[in-house]
Each structure stands twice: as C-alpha cells, then as structure tokens.
Design goal:
Strand content: under 5%
Number of helices: 1
Radius of gyration: 16 Å
Helix content: over 70%
Number of strands: 0
C-alpha cells in the first residue's frame, strides 16, 4: 500500500518532466527550422 502511494507522485512527476522535455525539443526544432527558412 505504501509503495503504491509513493509511486503515484513519482509517475506524475516523470510524466510532467517528459512533457516538458518534449515541449523543449519541439520548440528547439521549430526555432532552428525558422532560422534556416
């Protein structure tokens, strides 16, 4: 029970960091494409 309660916030935090990382990558790609174009 304690393990499950501990894993939930960790999963949420990992998902949030993955979303942030994805946003940074997409933003960087758009920036580089805009500079070249």
């Amino acid at each position: 029970m304690l393990g499950g309660r501990l894993m939930a916030p960790i999963e949420q935090l990992r998902h949030r960091s993955l979303t942030a990382l994805f946003a940074v990558v997409v933003f960087g790609l758009r920036e580089s494409a805009g500079r070249e174009g």
